[in-house]
Sequence to fold (168 residues):
Amino acid sequence: MRVYVPLTLSGLAAAHRAGDIGPGPLTAYAVTPALREWYVSDDIEELEYAALNRAASASLRMIAQHPDAVRRRVVVAVEVPDNAAVADPDHSFDPSSLGEVRIAAPVALAKAAAVHVDADDATKDVSAAAAALGAADLGDDDAQFIVDGAEDHELLWFGIQEIPNLIG
Fold:
């Protein structure tokens, strides 16, 4: 099963040094039954893109919690055994946790299929979105518009061999 693990650039650097993403439990995003029902699609590529975007939103939340974090969202796509990623049945249809899964143990970075990172030109919008998240969560439409501005940026695809250049 492919899962999408949200990180920050400093989290990616730590994973690179350690050789794994962890410690567990990890929160990740995947194509779950609830995500399939919410997205109403059978196209696996569209569903995986939706899971990737959920992870990108979680990365934005991590950035918002750490004022010193580089303002670029990071998501690592990792292959794990199907039984390693478990959705919480009590929250599976909660809109805020669609596609969310837990992975009990650290995941070897060598199992990563790719790393998705914002381009440098997204930092201004990601920074503004991180600052506006709290107000957006409280229903402020203007703040939500700012958050959506960060989501308009497509994450770039990188191979795991390119991680040293991303964190350097």
Observations:
- The two ends are 30 Å apart (CA to CA).
